[in-house]
């Protein structure tokens, strides 16, 4: 182990130079044209050497000004406590984890002490060291190396909330029966408040957590254990058609046990699910989701009867009524169907049916975000 070199004040070196020349402080002060008191205070380490003084010392003693400035800098640095480990540790935490968001969302407490901050972060991510990587295994549309820390953070929060809930024992048959009950809730936005209870009855924990900025998460299917599934939504796009699409998408993952070995299936940017990089699992879930409220057969038949695609409000509302679904679900499907065609997507007045539903879901679902902090265990 190396021994730290002792750093002396530059006045010590000045004193040695004067003694070597047999100069008194008074005599040296006269040489450089400065007060004797200044020389005395430099030697006593009560006064710092300025660039001007360094130039004068160099000229009178035959050295360089840089020598005296370096001596002064080294001495001043040595007086400061050893490199501030707290600052370094805090900087590493902020560089690796979204500390500001964790505090803003109330997931950890604001604290000045680095030790307390570090403990909270390690507890949140279930880590032993800040250098460790979160161990929540996962499967996603993209490679695991590309999952961002913001997405990890969202997943860990979802799991924390879900883990605090007790529901009935899960069975796939119970979930299939639940799908029929969910189908009966498609007619009105207010019916969405019943979704968490229907899923809980089937043994599926349902959690609503606001996405962190730029995380782009729409939802996820998690497995706390092989028989404890969780459906989590972010309601990133707050529209009735998007809600049902994402929910049914995640339920299909669950029914097919996608990601079960990896504990979670993470979905982002489902609105851009036509990308060539979409996996087989995602394509299967997308098909199930798109067919849930308005099937392709029903939509094609409807569109064939209203060519050249004049979707009047009365026609859309009437079609939705025959299917027993809210008009917004029809409008959403029409928009998706026509987005890559030369036909205009449904007119602005139809978009009014793409109603917001998050506030309804928040009434009954365990929720974290949008000004609400879900209580920790």
Write structural notes for this entry.
The structure is a single chain. This protein folds into 3 domains: 10-79, 434 Repressor (Amino-terminal Domain); 85-125, no CATH class; 139-368, no CATH class. 50% of the residues lie in helices and 8% in strands. It has helices at 10-21, 25-32, 36-43, 51-61, 65-79, 85-96, 99-104, 114-125, 149-163, 172-183, 195-201, 240-255, 280-293, 296-304, 313-323, 327-338, 348-351, 358-361; strands at residues 139-140, 205-209, 217-225, 228-233, 264-268, 367-368. It has a 6-stranded mixed sheet with strand order 1-5-3-4-2-6, sandwiched between helices. The longest helix is centred in the middle third of the chain and has 16 residues, at 240-255. The protein is elongated and about 110 Å long.
Q: Briefly, what is this?
A:
With 377 residues, this protein is of the alpha/beta class. It contains 18 helices and six strands.
